[in-house]
Amino acid sequence: MNWEKKDIAPELVKSISSKYGCDLLTASILARRGIVSGGEIKYFLEDDIRHLINPFELPGMEDAVERILAAKEEGEKILVFGDRDADGISAAAIVTGFLLSIGMDVITRLPQGDEPYGLSIGAVEEFAAAYGTLIITVDCGISNMQEVKRAAELGVDVIITDHHNPQEEIPEALVILNPKLDCCPADGPDGQGPGAYPFRNLAGCGVAYKLVSALRFALKSELFGQDICLLNTCPANDAFVIEIAKMRNLVVIKSLTETLVPGRVKIDQTRLPAFLEGQQIMVWDAALQRRTLTAIFGGAAEINMLDIAPEIGKEFPSAAGKSLLRIKELSRIAKYSDR
């Protein structure tokens, strides 16, 4: 047997090994397979679920979560409709199990006998007759135009979670969660949406898991549905760089970077006021940030900000009292980012 190995630069292997903390053999395998960016390498070296893509990067997720939580609040009856294969059964179990665990009135239905794949008119009409008001499809639904239309006629909302390829025409459901569905960025907050989901090849049960993950976040975090800005300043030669990330559900939806020389411009001559207007601004080490902003703009510039360092220090003692640069050196997540 002849083994043919792709030639790779030793410098590249050493760089991957040093930057990402893996042995040289692993680094050489990654390099030969063309896996050289931090985002790609992360999914081969890490198994912590915190490295998974934020579920709210799936377009439509916030709307789906809000509708389900509204159903919980009102005590509505929900139907989880899946498929009879392994993916569909798993997806139905994931969603149904979670909804039951938070006390919701939910039933599950899969195609039986000779019933065709996907949501059926009969299932919709039976559910509506039983005073059901919300259907969640799992591993199906993206091709059920007539069934979703019939549900709307009967006053039943439909949330589609699917992973199959959408056709040119898609159902007029309340929400569609599908990583293969193209998304217009302008549909997102501030005219900036997450765009298409970064990983198109989720299974149906993967989409279901993302929905449950988002519901968990919404139920446990005060940050659900909130717009926040993370602001940081740092020196750059004779100037300062101000970086701001506008976030919603911990997804960056818009960012701004300004490089400013102290005393050259007033704050109202920059893009900062418009960008920060109405936002909850969070910083690391508020005293340092205020000193830097005063050095740039003078004492007239006042920005209300919340110092998150003390609270994060309580949750993660290893971060307490450290600068952002030092925390970046300690962070397993930060090393995979170019920024």
TL;DR?
With 339 residues, the chain is an alpha/beta fold. It contains 12 helices and 10 strands. The chain folds into 3 domains: 10-45; 55-220, inorganic pyrophosphatase (n-terminal core); 227-307.
Overall description:
With 339 residues, this protein is of the alpha/beta class. The chain folds into 3 domains: 36 residues; 166 residues, inorganic pyrophosphatase (n-terminal core) (Alpha-Beta Complex), CATH 3.90.1640; 81 residues. The protein is 37% helix and 17% strand. The chain has 12 helices and 10 strands. A 5-stranded parallel β-sheet has the order 2-1-3-4-5, with helices on both faces. It has a 5-stranded mixed β-sheet with strand order 8-7-6-9-10. A hairpin with a 2-residue loop joins strand 7 and strand 8. Helix 4 crosses helix 8. The radius of gyration is 24 Å and the shape is globular. About 3% of the residues have low confidence.
Low-confidence stretches: 184-192
Q: How many H/I helical runs?
A: 12
- If you consult CATH, what is the topology of the largest domain? inorganic pyrophosphatase (n-terminal core)
CATH architecture of the largest domain: Alpha-Beta Complex
What is the string of helix and strand elements? Answer: HHHHEHEHEHEEHEEEHEHEHH
Structural class: alpha/beta
Number of domains: 3
The largest β sheet comes out as:
5 strands, parallel
- Radius of gyration computed on alpha carbons: 24 Å
Strand order of the largest sheet: 2-1-3-4-5
The residue fraction in helices comes out at 25-40%
Shape: globular
Distance between the termini: 44 Å
Please give the CATH class of the largest domain: Alpha Beta
The residue-averaged pLDDT reads 91
In total, the number of strands is 10
Strand content: 15-25%
